[in-house]
Amino acid sequence: MHNKVFQPDRREPRSLSQVHRRRQVKNGVMRHSSKWRLKMNRLTKLILFGAALAASVAHAQDPKDIPQKSGVTPTDLIVRGVDGTANLDFTVIDVKYEPGGVNRRHFHPAAVTFYVVSGTPVFQQEGKEPITLKPGDSLLVPAGTTHSHWNPSKTEGVRWLEFIVAEKGKGRSIRKP
Fold first, then answer.
1. Global pTM?
2. What is the predicted pLDDT for the residue at 36?
3. CB-based contact 69:102 (threshold 8 Å)
4. Nearest partner of 112 among 177, 172, 44, 40, judged by Cα
């Protein structure tokens, strides 16, 4: 004769699969099947990924909080009135880019000519492919052209000169978000 132990809080399993699905308690620790653990591991990873994604979105910076220039140092070499005019300035700016330096999307109300002194900067006009410049290259950017430029090098700096003829006080760049 077979003696059964009465367990009021558990039903007897009806099939072997029910036995495998049922959680077991051994030495106070709950044991689960390997399939169940795999599903829970995937679910945990999914929940952690979702939490990380939500955190990154919550901490995303407003574009206005990101500096227009990073690793860029402009120095005015010449700022003077244009002879024979009442309201035009001629400006020459010596611009140095540290490795990885960037000047994000902006435009100039006046045309600007860039002359590369050293390094290999990248210039990109909005809607066009980026172009890499080299020392001795010059580039004319028409007034109002939205563009950005940066130094892709991790070790070498960039230096170029900007030449601008504009109405007094209107030759500098204007940020575009």
1. 0.60
2. 55
3. yes
4. 172
Q: Are 118 and 153 in contact (CB under 8 A)?
A: no
Length of the chain: 177
List the chain domain ranges. Answer: 16-58, 66-175
**pLDDT at residue 45, rounded to an integer:** 63
Q: What is the 3-state secondary structure (H, E, C) of 19-82?
A: HHHCCEEECCEEECCHHHHHHHHHHHHHHHHHHHHHHHHHCCCCHHHCCCEEEEEEEEEEEEEC
Q: What is the DSSP letter of 119?
A: S
117 and 93 in contact (C-beta within 8 Å)? no
The H-or-E segment that residue 158 falls in is strand 158-167
Q: Are 63 and 54 in contact (CB under 8 A)?
A: no
Task: Name the CATH superfamily for 66-175.
Answer: Jelly Rolls (2.60.120.10)
What's phi and psi for 3, nearest 5 deg? -95, 135
Using alpha carbons, select from 121, 117, 136 the residue that is nearest to residue 71: 121
Q: Which residues contact 66 (CB under 8 A, 6 or more apart)?
A: 104
Q: Which helix (H) or strand (E) holds 146?
A: none
Structure confidence by residue, pLDDT tens digits, 24-78:
555 555 555 666 566 666 666 666 655 555 555 444 444 445 566 788 999 999 9
